[in-house]
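name: query_chain
kind: protein
chains: 1
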Amino acid sequence: MAADSGLSKVSAKKALESFLAILSKELKAGGKVSLVGHGTYQVVEKAARTGINPQTKAPIRIPAGKTVKFKPSEQIKHL
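structure:
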């Protein structure tokens, strides 16, 4: 990233860390982050469901929760 942008490694690291902090803060607040030409990050609710323990094959209950979903832009999809 540093070599491609012409920034120093320290500056590139700061820029990346800043982006990740903003992304994390916005997603924790329930928002969504769109980057033109890249895609969209958003938090989605996952319903509770039944799964299977792979070792014992016994059914287990997986609780409801939230996760981050990424939807790529059309430019990324068609690479």
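note: The chain has two domains: 1-30, 34-79.
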